[in-house]
């Protein structure tokens, strides 16, 4: 080893010892012929001193040193006087008097400061382009270490629960998981493609058919979908698991203790909103949408949406009455203390509601003298407006927002308003964690791609509640599935389900979504065949490692959790990918690129 100690471990216990350190020059200070340098490695900082009274040759060499040069030094550990202890440094009680310096490598001037405080203004584009430099920051080192410890903890937990870790294929087949596939052309079979797995869904179900019983892996998943604050482009990792001979509740009982433990171990947050028996609360999908306006509600704060359709269906206000007449609903969101919102803030909230297809955002303010202030009171009538306020429990200083439209539009528009109000009023306490399960998702929904077409609302391989009988006798949109999401502070942490393991039920489920038997056999032939050979009832889920870590630690972006992330446009700026490939490579694959202006 080139070193005897690291830069983060020295204390007064090593005083008077001769040691060897290696690392990067972090800061340099010249004081009257003496040079002080903060030497940095992964483990921390140590102040080293070059003094002519100790070694003139070392001092002469130290005069050449610049930021980020890599050096090796030998010297004696010296305890600092009490009035010179640096309490901001872990090693602030000591410094090292250097008697020998070896320059291991020089460095160009970095494109940005490594110092955390000075680095805050660095452009993300530059940081990603020089990620190998950015990674030297202590913050990123800590994040990578935390992720390693998190994964190790999850792995140990699953092994202790008798799960077997198994790696499933990376070169897989295209599957309707809800996002675009990354396709990999086959050289051996021109015109045919592998797909990188959006999730190991089919393989883990086949493992259950194979009698594995309890499977897990820290699975890489690949999806060609747009980036956002909690979604990294292209690839992400999940704690993928599957169990045989289980019901939905069995999966909950495996996952809840783990989520409680990682919350305690990897954050300083307190878990709130547990049920009376200490379990995560379970909220049916429809209730979540109607009460919180989303299927991933932030339960750290208690703002709730309430349906007022029956109160206003026959009122004289055309916007409300018309919505109800056309099969829609009217709902209200009471915001305690929201009367202080300015006109500009209300306009911003209105724009948010309109981003979810709402036509506008009606409101009533209860002023401090108890009077109601709103353009819609004259249309509702004073008596009905006051009755609505009483029904909602609104008081002086509150504001009530209204949505009147189709069910989903009202839910989602008031949902984003609720979320923003929680932010504006400081209700999102970063010292709290609110976990919950969202259950009873609808099996089917309208396609987002093809208007009017019925498609799966969630995972296509889920078991419908009521089985084949429900598929044959109920209207598609009335059928619920044994599907569930795990939610943390307004973020989806995991999706899961009890799986469809019966070929007859699977054929019928896909038939309702417009997939004929021949297409099902073509796309999911391995699963259909496997299910004909004694498939056990099974189910599972897959918590997202990176997203959970981001929320637990209040990290700003999921990208920083990756050693080498893509930028917001899905590019690797450091490696300059994606990039064009040679004509020879394309020819081998039987691919011709068509240039588009």
What can you tell me about this protein's structure?
With 597 residues, the chain is an alpha+beta fold. It has four domains: 12-105, Nucleic acid-binding proteins (OB fold (Dihydrolipoamide Acetyltransferase, E2P), Beta Barrel), CATH 2.40.50.140; 116-135 and 566-597, no CATH class; 141-281 and 437-561, Bira Bifunctional Protein, Domain 2 (BirA Bifunctional Protein, domain 2), CATH 3.30.930.10; 301-427, Gyrase A, domain 2, CATH 3.30.1360.30. The protein is built from 19 helices and 23 strands. Strands 6, 9, 10, 11, 12, 18, 21, 22 and 23 form a nine-stranded mixed sheet that branches. Helix 16 packs antiparallel against helix 17 (517-531). The longest helix has 23 residues, at 138-160. The protein is globular. The protein starts with 17 loop residues before the first strand and ends in an 8-residue tail after the last helix. The model has no long low-confidence stretch (mean pLDDT 93).
Could you write a compact summary of the structure shown?
With 597 residues, the protein is an alpha+beta fold.
For the structure shown, list the relevant keywords.
BirA Bifunctional Protein, domain 2; OB fold (Dihydrolipoamide Acetyltransferase, E2P); 19 helices; nine-stranded mixed beta sheet; 597 residues; 31% helix; single chain
Question: Largest beta sheet, briefly?
Answer: 9 strands, mixed
Count of helix runs: 19
Oligomeric state of the chains in view: single chain
Into which percent range does the helicity of residues fall?
25-40%
CATH class of the largest domain: Alpha Beta
Low-confidence stretches: none
Computed structural class: alpha+beta
The coarse overall form would be globular
Give Rg in angstroms.
30 Å
- Number of spatially distinct domains: 4
CATH superfamily of the largest domain: Bira Bifunctional Protein, Domain 2
Task: Note the beta-strand portion.
Answer: 15-25%
Q: What's the number of extended β-strand segments?
A: 23
């Amino acid at each position: 080893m080139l070193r005897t100690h690291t830069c983060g471990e020295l204390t007064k216990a090593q005083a008077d010892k001769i040691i060897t350190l290696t690392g990067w020059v972090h800061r340099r200070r010249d004081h009257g012929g003496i040079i002080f340098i903060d030497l940095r490695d992964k483990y921390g900082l140590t102040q080293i001193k070059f003094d002519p009274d100790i070694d003139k040759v070392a001092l002469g060499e130290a005069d050449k040193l610049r930021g980020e040069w890599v050096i090796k030094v030998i010297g004696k550990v010296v305890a600092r006087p009490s009035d010179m202890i640096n309490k901001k440094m872990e090693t602030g009680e000591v410094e090292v008097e250097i008697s020998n310096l070896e320059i291991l490598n020089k460095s160009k001037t970095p494109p940005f400061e490594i110092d955390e405080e000075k680095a805050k203004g660095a452009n993300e584009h530059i940081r990603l382009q020089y990620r190998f430099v950015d990674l030297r920051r202590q913050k990123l080192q800590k994040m990578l270490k935390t992720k390693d410890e998190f994964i190790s903890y999850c792995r140990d937990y699953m092994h202790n629960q008798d799960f077997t870790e198994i790696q499933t294929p990376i070169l897989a087949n295209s599957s309707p998981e809800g996002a675009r596939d990354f396709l990999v052309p086959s050289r051996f079979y021109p015109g045919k493609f592998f797909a990188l797995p959006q999730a190991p869904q089919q393989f883990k179900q086949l493992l259950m058919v194979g009698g594995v019983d309890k499977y897990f892996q820290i699975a890489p998943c690949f999806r060609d979908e747009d980036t956002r604050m909690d979604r990294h482009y292209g690839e992400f990792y999940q704690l993928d698991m599957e169990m045989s001979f289980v019901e939905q509740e069995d999966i909950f009982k495996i996952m809840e203790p783990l989520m409680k433990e990682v919350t305690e171990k990897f954050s300083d947050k307190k878990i709130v909103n547990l049920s009376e028996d200490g379990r995560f609360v379970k909220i049916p999908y429809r209730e979540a949408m109607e009460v919180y306006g989303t299927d991933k509600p932030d339960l750290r704060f208690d703002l709730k949406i309430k349906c007022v359709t029956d109160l206003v269906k026959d009122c004289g206000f055309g916007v409300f009455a018309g919505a109800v007449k056309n099969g829609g609903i009217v709902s209200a969101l009471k915001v305690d203390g929201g009367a202080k919102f300015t006109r500009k803030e209300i306009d911003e909230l209105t724009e948010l509601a309109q981003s979810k297809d709402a036509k506008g955002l009606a409101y009533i303010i209860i002023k401090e003298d108890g009077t109601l202030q709103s353009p819609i009171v004259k249309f509702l009538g004073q008596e009905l407006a006051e009755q609505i306020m009483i029904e909602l429990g609104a008081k002086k200083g509150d504001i009530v927002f209204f949505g009147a439209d189709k069910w989903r539009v009202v839910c989602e528009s008031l949902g984003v308003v609720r979320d923003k109000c929680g932010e504006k009023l400081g209700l999102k306490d970063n010292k709290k964690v609110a976990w919950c399960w969202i259950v009873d998702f609808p099996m089917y929904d309208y396609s987002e791609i093809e208007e009017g077409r019925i498609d799966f609302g969630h995972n296509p391989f889920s078991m419908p509640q009521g089985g084949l009988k429900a598929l044959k006798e109920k209207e598609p949109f009335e059928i619920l599935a044994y599907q569930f999401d795990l939610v943390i502070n307004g973020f989806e942490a995991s999706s899961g389900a009890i799986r469809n393991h019966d070929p007859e039920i699977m054929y019928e489920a896909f038939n309702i979504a417009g997939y004929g038997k021949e297409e099902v056999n073509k796309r999911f032939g391995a699963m259909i065949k496997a299910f004909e050979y004694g498939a056990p009832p099974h189910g599972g889920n897959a918590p997202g490692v990176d997203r959970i870590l981001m929320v637990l630690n209040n990290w700003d972006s999921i990208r920083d959790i990756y050693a080498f992330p893509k930028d917001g446009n899905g590019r690797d700026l450091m490696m300059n990918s994606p990039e064009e490939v040679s004509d020879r490579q394309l020819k081998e694959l039987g691919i011709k690129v068509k240039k588009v202006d």
